[in-house]
Design a protein that fits this description.
By secondary structure, the protein is mostly helical. Among the domains are: 41 residues; 67 residues, lambda repressor-like DNA-binding domains (434 Repressor (Amino-terminal Domain), Orthogonal Bundle), CATH 1.10.260. 52% of the residues lie in helices and 5% in strands. It is flat, with a radius of gyration of 36 Å.
């Protein structure tokens, strides 16, 4: 690392170095700052996990949440039956079943109770669209009669429309 030291009239020492070296030092300092910010955020998350304020879910549960009903997946993850969940949330078991099968979306009050019992935030239980692809609509194609007559390919006559012929007098 090549540098030059300059002493100002007030006695302050200043260092002059090549721009490439300066850029390398700035990048290294930025990386260190990012690492410090990441470390502080990780410490905050760990504190929330240790206090029970926040929790984690196993990967297989997260995968199921992408395509299945969230209430059902979380209830099964917690090892509860529909009747147990309904009793704890003070809801009718049939209503919980309807929410799990999608026949009912669930009221805000019911979803709030279920979220509390399942130990998740309300936004995780809010109705959502599954991420799986929806089947494409079937398209019917009408085949012209002359294609469906069984006439061999070389013998088919396609309808031909002729463009009207205009004389030069009509254009003028």
């Amino acid at each position: 690392m090549s540098h030059q030291t300059i002493k100002t009239p007030s006695g302050e020492e200043m260092i002059v170095l090549p721009k490439a070296e300066y850029d390398r030092l700035v990048a290294a300092a930025a990386g260190t700052l990012e690492d410090e910010i990441d470390a502080r955020e990780a410490a905050r998350v760990l504190a929330r996990l240790e206090s029970g304020e926040e929790g984690t879910l196993p990967f297989d549960v997260v995968k199921r949440l992408r395509t299945e009903n969230h209430v059902k997946v979380l209830r099964e993850h917690r090892g509860m039956t529909q009747e147990q969940l309904a009793g704890a949330a003070e809801l009718h078991p049939l209503y919980v079943s309807q929410i799990e099968t999608g026949r009912a979306t669930g009221s805000l009050k019911a979803l709030t109770r279920l979220a509390h019992i399942l130990g998740v935030s309300l936004d995780l239980l809010a109705p959502h669209e599954p991420t799986t692809e929806k089947p494409r609509p079937k398209v019917s194609v009408k085949i012209p009669r002359h294609f469906a007559t069984g006439v061999p390919k070389g013998k088919r006559k396609l309808p031909v429309r002729r463009a009207p012929v205009h004389s030069k007098k009509e254009k003028a």
